[in-house]
Design a protein that fits this description.
Helix content: under 10%
Low-confidence stretches: 1-19
Number of helices: 7
Structural class: mainly beta
Strand order of the largest sheet: 1-2-4-8-12-17-20-23-26-29-32
Number of strands: 53
Largest sheet: 11 strands, parallel
Strand content: 25-35%
Distance between the termini: 110 Å
Mean pLDDT: 93
Length: about 800
């Protein structure tokens, strides 16, 4: 009778499915001991039928996290199809609602807790297969949750904490994985999905979880595993993989933000196979989106594995990030933290084939605010191999292009990562093999190496591989990196690039603002391949994508193939230097996921400005020259007479300032009208002698007026010899009071005024022995200006401000 009562109690705790109707099985306790009236997770998995859902309703305080200690021996392996395990069904739980570039605000209340070192041996699947074969798991590979053969399994709303290794106390040990998926030749395990889960994080705090020692991070050896299944050695059956599958946001999801995962792991997704979609996840970033959880640092790096994502055997049809279909694209990118100490890569891709890989819309090394940088010097991809066809960034098909570019911040802080760059191994963003076809477009790059192909290491050993890498797609008989002309006047951008090899003959030139950080820091390595007659180049890369132009397209002013002249007016050139890539496509521009191969970035070039309008300014008065007339013997802004114009003394750099909101002040060096020094002056300079002037230009337009840098003590403009020892001294200075309505300004120059009788109305020059012979020193004088008449009035006599 007792047995019957227990059975009835178990039946009462769950709604059972008929062969034609799915059931909801509700877990009501964290206790692994079978108790009347309660259902634990072990029982729930045992009760599953195809199509069932496991929900949770464990009693507790509002918002309390329920921790499920893994039973010794682990949970049963899930083998059913169309199964959902829904942690968000627990009262108080809720999925994330924020974008991928904001903190993850999920409220997870169900935590599977293998910090006790218990797990399920995935080697048990040998008993489930029933025929001789080679499953992808051994007896020492354990899982918190294991799935074998079941299709359309969806696991969501769970946190998983775990010891990285397991021990059942009976001599059985193994490495623990959070969730493992396995298949066989007749059980596909297709279409599994993990979304809205946290790994290695305590859901009660949103922080890194630890074991009882306070040091070991409570994250498994591998977060998610999916391995191939093979026939017996020499058998006729092909290898099969548990695929396709999704980690994060499913394609065209109806609730994408609810499916974001957060991983604290040194070895995130370890898999063999193809057709994986990895979208909308934090990797090595806490839920706040601002804090890196770096496994190369945590626990002294002891739990660092191969990296965040490792896929081998067949890596085809892989999406990491945004698929660019116009649905949820803004929320499909991943946010990757950093590996400060090296030893791992972001994505480890091994074995051929590697066709149709898309890496798009991801952020690397930067927090969700787009500003805060994570300490990082990790390689992103190892390796795009010889058969790879890759889209890294945007395809510019007109759909979600701005969302497809990756944002890559690396090698930060530079001084810490490379304290002596001249003797260091330079960083490498991507490892590429000759034969790989890599489209590398529309990305935001800050402080990376030479990209996409890092051809310089100081020895020249990579140059042949670089040439071979490009040879399948473009002519290697000329420069294989685009070259920008150094004399391009705004708004024209001119240059050359290699011609394409058929069928890659559609050439698209992408224009970017240069990343100054990568350029400057790249110089510090002093790599011999980058040394030119003008010095050592840095690592050119694009910090901001600006526009694309088609070689020989309607906007190209040069009809020759491989030569271009584009009008780039209206583009945001930032500080000025630009860099370009040439992209060689076998498809017309605008083709979705087109067959395209990108060159490396050109060395930068700053376009020569034209008139005021060439840099986006409005001309309020016509440009005019200020010059000294030898026939009229004065400084003027009148029509230039070349026969009367005196050549400058190579120090006439103008200095400008603004006076309030009324007047531009333009100071310059020029010649003294009276070239005769004062009587008795000890002059060692040689004629012609200079003086200083300041020109007043109304900001609202109108004619300018030429004033003087100094007035004599008598209050009249001084136009004579004023520097006794240098006829071509340092340029003058002028500074205006910039407050609205201000009228005062200050002039300054290198003079010998203290020895000049025109400035001797008092004894201010008798306090220092400097004011004698041919000495020179800083001299200043304050003035006021009438902004209507442009008349200047001295407010004080000229003086040396140092004494």
């Amino acid at each position: 009778m007792k047995t019957l009562v227990c059975l009835l109690a178990v039946l009462a705790a769950a709604t059972f499915a008929t062969p034609t109707q799915a059931a909801i099985i509700t877990v009501t306790t964290t206790n692994n001991t079978v108790s009347a009236g309660q259902t634990n997770l072990t029982q729930a998995i045992q009760m599953l039928h195809d199509g069932d859902t496991i929900n949770f309703n464990v009693p507790g305080a509002p918002g309390q996290v329920q921790y499920f200690p893994t039973p010794n021996g682990g949970y049963p392996i899930i083998t059913n199809n169309n199964v959902t395990i829904d942690g968000y069904s627990q009262p108080g739980a809720s999925p994330n609602t924020n974008s991928i570039h904001a903190p993850n605000n999920a409220r997870i209340r169900i935590c599977l807790d293998s910090r006790n070192g218990y797990g399920t041996s995935m080697g048990q699947i040998t008993n489930l297969i029933g025929v001789p074969s080679r499953p992808g798991y051994g007896e020492d590979e354990w899982a918190v949750l294991g799935v074998f053969g079941g299709t359309n399994v969806f696991i969501k709303g769970l946190a998983i904490l775990s010891s990285p290794t397991g021990d059942d106390g009976a001599g059985n040990t193994g490495d623990i994985k959070s969730i493992s998926f396995a298949c066989s030749h007749d059980r596909s395990c297709a279409n599994w999905h993990v979304g809205g889960c946290w790994f290695g994080l305590d859901p009660a705090t949103g922080k890194v979880g630890y074991l009882s020692d306070g040091t070991t991070v409570a994250t498994p050896a591998i977060a998610i595993a999916a391995y191939r299944h093979r026939d017996v050695s020499g058998g006729p059956l092909p290898d099969v993989y548990p695929q396709p599958a999704t980690i994060g946001v499913a394609a065209r999801s109806s609730n994408a933000r609810a499916e974001f995962n957060v991983f604290v792991t040194g070895y995130g997704f370890d898999s063999e196979g193809l057709n994986f979609r990895i979208s909308g996840n934090f990797w090595g970033v806490l839920p706040d989106g601002m804090t890196s959880a770096d496994m190369s640092v945590l626990n002294g790096g002891a739990q660092l594995g191969d990296g965040f994502i490792e896929i081998g055997r067949n890596t085809s049809n892989l999406i990491i990030g945004t698929d660019g279909d116009g649905v949820n694209d803004a929320d499909e990118g991943n946010v990757f933290g950093g590996f400060a100490k090296g030893g791992a890569v972001m994505m480890d891709l091994y074995s051929d084939p590697q066709t149709n890989i898309v890496v798009a819309g991801n952020w690397f090394g930067v927090a969700v605010d787009g500003v805060t940088r994570f300490t990082n010097s990790a390689t992103l991809v190892d390796t795009f191999r010889s058969q790879s066809t890759v889209q890294f960034g945007a395809d510019f098909d007109g759909k979600s292009d701005a969302l497809e570019g990756n944002v890559v911040f690396n090698n930060y802080p530079f001084a810490d990562q490379f304290p002596t760059p001249g003797g260091a191994t330079e960083p490498r963003l991507l490892l590429l093999s000759p034969g790989a076809r890599v489209s590398f477009r529309g990305n935001t790059l800050v402080n990376n190496d030479l990209v996409p192909f890092d051809y310089a290491d100081g020895t020249g050993s990579r140059l042949d591989s670089f040439t071979n890498y490009e040879a399948a797609y473009l002519s290697t008989n000329a420069d294989i990196i685009p070259v920008l002309a150094t004399n391009s006047p705004y708004p024209l951008l001119t240059g050359t690039c290699a011609t394409g090899n058929p069928p890659y003959t559609n050439i698209i030139v992408d224009v970017y603002q240069l990343d100054p950080e990568g350029w400057a820091n790249g110089m510090a390595f002093g790599l011999s391949e980058l040394v030119t007659a003008d010095g050592t180049n840095g690592f050119p890369q694009g910090k901001k994508y600006l526009a694309s132009f088609v070689d020989n397209g309607p906007l190209d002013g040069d009809p020759a193939v491989g030569k271009f002249r584009f009008n780039i007016s209206g583009l945001n050139l930032g500080a000025g230097p630009v860099t370009v890539t040439a992209n060689y496509s076998a498809d017309p521009p605008g083709t979705h996921n087109g067959r395209t191969h990108s060159s490396n970035f050109s060395n930068p070039m700053t376009i020569i400005p034209g008139g005021a309008s060439s840099v986006g300014l409005t001309t309020v008065v016509p440009d005019m020259l200020l010059w000294y007339s030898s026939t009229a013997n004065h400084y003027t802004n009148g029509p230039v007479d070349p026969s009367a114009q005196l050549a400058n003394l190579s120090n006439w750099e103008p200095y400008i300032s603004v006076l309030g909101d009324s007047t531009f002040l333009i100071g310059a060096n020029t010649f003294a009208d009276d070239q005769t020094p004062p009587a008795g002056a000890n002059v060692t300079a040689t004629a012609p002698f200079q003086r200083f002037v300041v020109t007043f230009q109304p900001a609202a337009g109108g004619a300018p007026k030429i004033g003087e840098e100094f007035y004599s003590d008598a209050g009249s403009p001084y136009r004579g010899v004023i520097n006794y020892s240098r006829e071509n001294g340092n340029p003058q200075r002028v500074a205006g009071d910039k407050r609205v309505g201000a009228v005062n300004f200050l002039t300054a120059a290198e003079t010998s005024a203290g020895q000049n009788p025109a400035f001797h109305s008092d004894s201010r020059w008798t306090s220092n022995l400097t004011y004698q012979a041919d000495n020179r020193y800083v001299t200043v004088q304050p003035f006021s200006l009438d902004p209507v008449t442009l008349e200047q009035t001295p407010l004080h006599s000229a003086f040396d401000p140092l004494y």
